[in-house]
Please model this.
Amino acid sequence: MIGCLLALTAQANDGVYYLNGNQLVPLTETDISIAKEVLTISIGDDGYASVDVQYELMNNGKAKTVQMGFEANAPYNDNAGLNKDGRHPYISDFTVTMNGSALNYSNAVVAADYEGTDFERLDLNRWKVADDLEWHLMREEGTDSIVPFAYAYFFEAPFKEGLNTVHHTYRYLMSYGVGRAFEIPYWLKPAMRWANHQIDDFTLRIKAENTAKHFCMEDSLFQGEPFRVTEGMGKVRKTLRFGDVEMVEVSLRNGTVEWHGRNFVPRSNISIQAAEILYSFSDDMKVGAFYDRSDRFTLWPIEPKRSDRRILRNLPFAHRGYVFRSKDLQKYFSQFWWYMPDAGYQPSTDDFTPREKKLITEYK
Model:
């Protein structure tokens, strides 16, 4: 039941949070378990992340129809307002295919409840977004009750006996904030709502296609097995954030990094963050310590010294692995962990973003 919200999770007012990615879940108790899941998150330069999830779900009982759902939290620090039809304003290309057949879905605005098993639909005649509340909260008219709200996608899933396959896709706008050019939160814990309270065989793949991305994640969830670069060019290492938080740091160029585990119990969620967060608060941060091709990223320093201009206009080339003939430039970029030299790369601006083309002309 919806009641008066006594405490809210505090979030720093230093970013825009569009939504968390999430698992597909059953809305009622079920004896169906997750035998296998392959979660692929692709990071682009357009501000969006694409999600592709392949599930194998085991139904040990008779054939049945199970109501399933997907929950996406409301934006935070954003002025999108309320979509009364229940479709999230920053999700696109949402599809669910089960055993080869596309499933239809409906939408509703619900009380956000990431740990529970029921999505409680809000009566929008009673629950309103008020001017004095943050955008992710609603108040019940005539009372002091306040709840965070979310957008929900509902569909009827016809399970056959034995193994069933589900393919789920969508795109969503990446969050961002001070010290991070992008942030991709993804809720894994709801997977524990299935009967086995784990994912028997879990693979996480993070891809940077036709671009290069430098990012990090907290290491606590990924114990035992290491991350491996399985496609393209990339590297992985363990590092520390703020001196004591263990992180996995990844640099990819047209590549994929992968983690695989069995009997995986997702006791926490993940957040893929631009590796800028590891460097941007350092007193001795050097020009180019972090670089991202997206238009969101603001180069440091905003008003560069003359001596920095040469470095800045060469950053896009270094990001693509150019081996510089100038010894001082080669030495400079080689100090950065993200730099991955590629002797076969021939300098060209053909794949430069508009921002990068402006960069190399602006700092001549």
Notes: The CA atoms of residues 254 and 313 lie 22 Å apart. The first helix runs from residue 276 to 279.
